[in-house]
Amino acid sequence: xxxxxxxxxxxxxxxxxxxxxxxxxxxxxxxxxxxxxxxxxxxxxxxxxxxxxxxxxxxxxxxxxxxxxxxxxxxxxxxxxxxxxxxxxxxxxxxxxxxxxxxxxxxxxxxxxxxxxxxxxxxxxxxxxxxxxxxxxxxxxxxxxxxxxxxxxxxxxxxxxxxxxxxxxxxxxxxxxxxxxxxxxxxxxxxxxxxxxxxxxxxxxxxxxxxxxxxxxxxxxxxxxxxxxxxxxxxxxxxxxxxxxxxxxxxxxxxxxxxxxxxxxxxxxxxxxxxxxxxxxxxxxxxxxxxxxxxxxxxxxxxxxxxxxxxxxxxxxxxxxxxxxxxxxxxxxxxxxxxxxxxxxxxxxxxxxxxxxxxxxxxxxxxxxxxxxxxxxxxxxxxxxxxxxxxxxxxxxxxxxxxxxxxxxxxxxxxxxxxxxxxxxxxxxxxxxxxxxxxxxxxxxxxxxxxxxxxxxxxxxxxxxxxxxxxxxxxxxxxxxxxxxxxxxxxxxx
Length: 494
What we know:
NAD, about 500 residues, Bifunctional NAD(P)H-hydrate repair enzyme, elongated, ATP binding, about 40% helix
């Protein structure tokens, strides 16, 4: 498992509870002190983000998350702000009851939440209803409150109420925060699936826990490091194109020549020395006219691939391949070649239909629908726990797996997972996956192993998408990524 860097390390909720217990039982940090530190961190974030706020609304649950909210409310009250606190219950549990009492002792007043109760009139609303311990959908008064939040900035304490902190999935009512302060350590679910819509700006507050509190608790996953580009060394001057590999892109059945062109051009833009394209003969003229640097060859079936396969060092298989006999023939030839390859799109669907072992060094790049077919389940099951789905695919297929989507995951057969924190909704458009296939293939061709090629490829692709989208993601097209990709891949080598 990865080593711990607080800014990159992701944990399950059970692991964070274990860290809490260690801090309290072995490191001498009292539970109420942890609660006070959390409130201090959250109130500092609130003041920093909304310095002009004068009216603070607080929603407090019965557990420790509510305790954090009571203590934050006390800080706001003592700072001279107007505080309107709505509590789910008449009493709290454990340290949270002490926190409730300190707010009352400071002069604060508590309203009891009831169905239809007026939400606090506020400049900022603090969500302290439920933290990581909630294992069910919100219901009753809590769901009613959450569903009526509108028109006011929201600060969530630890995790937006209603969001599964392990998976990033929501089931029913869920707070949509403008900012979330995660306490102790990053919860892995804050960076994928529905969390990208619910968390807003994410901030980590480790609460000054001693390093010993984390001892013996393995990191579950990591964020992709912004310095991942260091795995790709700078180029020497005395080289030639053969030094940087030969990518063979296979696909583009009738009517889908654009897909394989995007893959081939992405491989070129990311530094592959040579890129060939094996496609339908009807597409060759258009490819030569649009991108003459691609060595396009029309092939009738897999048997015609033999000389191309012999020269290639890496294969990019699947974009526009189709599911007909032509695509199946190329699929079989590619898999039996034993070459390192990236498997995408229709090649993944063929792999689900006709289970085959992929060669060593393979990278699979499914979206949730393709992942569901490979796993024999439905898309909802994949999205319900993307971490489990990615790990299972990597284990059963003995390959590196990129599970695409909001917060793309890269998983290895040994259980390692990294999460990509970049990307934007404009990238939900045709051809983006074809570009990613070419990016990863180019990195394999330049000497990266499958794990590094997938991690760096996903990072470059997402950051290029962000650079191309700017503040206008709607209307982004796959070809917009080529310019940023070239700049970023060169910056990655710096």
